[in-house]
Amino acid sequence: METTSTAINNSPEIDCATACTSGCLHPDNCLGQQHVSAAANFIDNMSIDKMHEIAEEARRKKLSAPPQWVIPEWDD
Fold first, then answer.
1. Is pLDDT larger for residue 74 or for residue 60?
2. What is the distance between the alpha carbons of residues 68 and 70, in angstroms, rounded to a whole number?
3. Distance from C-alpha of 20 to C-alpha of 33, rounded to nearest angstrom
4. Which of 5, 33, 41, 64 gives 20 to 30 Å between its CA and that of 18?
């Protein structure tokens, strides 16, 4: 099924990573705008030292987690 710009514009939810590669299809009502606003608010209101603490805690948590093995399923 081929997706046209009209079908994308009328859909309530679209995949911005694939549909908006050459620009936002909903600039007045962008689905990702709330995330952009939240990220901008986080950057404006958080000190760089606190951001570093958050990143360091995430790094320590990842290093202390047990390894996750991915076992491929072989076709017989």
1. 60
2. 7
3. 13
4. 41
